[in-house]
Amino acid sequence: MIDISRKSWQKYFLFGSLYFSEGLQGALTMVIIPVYLFDKGISIELVTLVAGIGGAPWYLKFVFAPLTDYFFQYGRKPFIIVGGFLAAISFFFLIYIDPLISLIPFTFLLFLSHLGTINLDVSCDGWAIQISKETERGKIN
Prior knowledge:
Blueprint lengths: L7 H32 L4 H16 L1 H10 L6 H18 L8 H29 L10
Helix pairs in contact: 1-2, 1-5, 2-5, 3-5, 4-5
């Protein structure tokens, strides 16, 4: 088993790729999906509402961090796995929904994908702080 707490480059690679993938999902939601919806003929007001609902978990991030810290006795990895799985599955099924026909399920899956990403993010932030040395903190996450 690989112990990433011993080698700094592994921590930088792991958490750097995590934050890169979160940035990609954020860019998809806040830039590409609104353009896609507007191009489909959905009004700008409705596009803004969908993007706001999809991005709402990012505004509620401060709620999830204390929850994962409260349930720390179960470890951080189950939260990481559940969050990543929820984000991936929701985003995967999102591509099969036509927003012109069913905008509510589209918005709901977008919300769920970001909910999973937030769960993944706060769990990995806590894990990064837990395994990093004092001199590495702030550089890794």
